[in-house]
């Protein structure tokens, strides 16, 4: 049902898109902005161009949805250029100036609240976000032959911080980041993201050297959008939990440090609680099986080709997985 509703959403106009989801029973008739935002954030099959058009509509409801959608992306600890990169990969930016203005205003408010950096207020962050997009276009468009220099970038951004100049080193950081790594926005051939790409947006590390998975603040607290949302169980069953479990499993298999493993298994615990709270027994069974597989207890003593598996007692990943499987079975099974 989620895939069918997403396909209908992708084929309709923004002003009718919400009714498509309501008609499919995926959103209630009296839908709240945070419920719509949660669905948009958790459903990778949606056409990102249609989503961008929807989020940029001028009505009070659409503005509220945009605010909740931006809040769901979590810019904590991200400098402006990194937050903007993450933001612009979650949908396709519309072409109309007024729509861009509304979207960047919402971004600036959220980003400044999460990490103000050198900015006195969100107005400066808004101007810098717009300037960063222009810099990205200038430096990486094949149609621009004379590229913007750093001196020109500095000159373009004088007195934007409540009448004051930004530190030169801050502007240099932004200029170099964009020059070395283009903010690649979705084009017409990439109107939807794969599940893997969407998961990457949620777990990608903001800074070099940081763990791939952000720390879970509390295993007793679910994301507020999920708590407040009345999204149907089909969304969790078809999209959210399978993709999350798959991503967490990949992280566990690739991790080689205790901190990352700890965060990943905290994620499994959250998935378990979410599945249990919605009586999704098949998803709980799948989660326990996945953890048991990671524990190596379901595999023979030798792997393919006769290679011996590490002893269980000295295999940190396997021991943590076995412990997590037992905890899920005991507390939520």
Descriptive account of the structure:
This protein has 2 domains: 33-195, Orthogonal Bundle (Arf Nucleotide-binding Site Opener, domain 2); 211-331, no CATH class. The chain has 16 helices and no strands. The chain has helices spanning 2-10, 14-23, 33-42, 48-55, 60-71, 80-88, 97-114, 122-140, 150-156, 168-180, 195-203, 224-228, 233-254, 258-277, 281-294, 316-331. With 333 residues, it is mainly α. It holds the Pfam family Sec7.
Given the structure, what is the number of helices? 16
The ordered string of helix (H) and strand (E) elements is HHHHHHHHHHHHHHHH
Structural class: mainly alpha
User: Would you tell me which CATH topology of the largest domain applies?
Assistant: Arf Nucleotide-binding Site Opener, domain 2
Q: Ranges with pLDDT <50 over ≥5 residues?
A: 188-232
Global outline: globular
Brief summary of the model shown:
GO terms for molecular function: guanyl-nucleotide exchange factor activity. Pfam families: Sec7. Helices cover 60% and strands 0% of the residues.
């Amino acid at each position: 049902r989620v895939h069918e509703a997403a396909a209908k959403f992708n084929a309709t106009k923004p002003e009718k898109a919400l009714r498509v989801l309501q008609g499919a029973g995926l959103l209630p008739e009296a839908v709240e902005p945070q419920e719509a935002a949660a669905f948009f954030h958790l459903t990778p099959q949606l056409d990102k161009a249609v989503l961008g058009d929807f989020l940029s509509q001028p009505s009070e409801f659409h503005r509220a949805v945009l605010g909740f959608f931006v809040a769901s992306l979590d810019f904590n600890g991200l400098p402006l250029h990194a937050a903007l990169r993450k933001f612009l990969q979650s949908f396709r930016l519309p072409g109309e100036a007024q729509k861009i203005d509304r979207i960047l205003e919402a971004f600036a408010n959220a980003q400044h609240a999460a990490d103000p950096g050198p900015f006195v207020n969100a107005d400066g962050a808004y101007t810098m976000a717009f300037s960063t997009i222009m810099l990205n276009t200038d430096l990486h468009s094949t149609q621009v032959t004379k590229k913007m220099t750093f001196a020109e970038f500095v000159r373009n951004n004088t007195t934007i911080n409540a009448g004051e100049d930004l530190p030169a080193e801050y502007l240099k950081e932004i200029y170099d980041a964009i020059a070395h790594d283009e903010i690649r926005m979705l084009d017409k051939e990439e109107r939807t993201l794969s599940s893997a790409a969407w998961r990457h947006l949620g777990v990608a590390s903001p800074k070099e050297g940081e763990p791939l998975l952000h720390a879970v603040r509390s295993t007793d607290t679910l994301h507020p959008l999920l708590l407040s949302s009345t999204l149907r169980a089909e969304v969790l069953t078809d999209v959210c939990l399978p993709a999350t479990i798959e991503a967490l499993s990949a992280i566990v298999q690739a991790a080689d440090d205790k901190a990352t493993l700890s965060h990943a298994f905290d994620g499994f615990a959250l998935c378990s609680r979410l599945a249990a709270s919605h009586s999704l027994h098949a998803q709980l069974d799948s989660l326990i099986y996945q953890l048991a597989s990671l524990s190596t207890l379901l595999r023979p003593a030798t792997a393919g080709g006769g290679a011996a598996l590490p002893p269980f007692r000295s295999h940190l990943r396997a021991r943590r997985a076995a412990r997590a499987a037992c905890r899920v079975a005991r507390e939520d099974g």
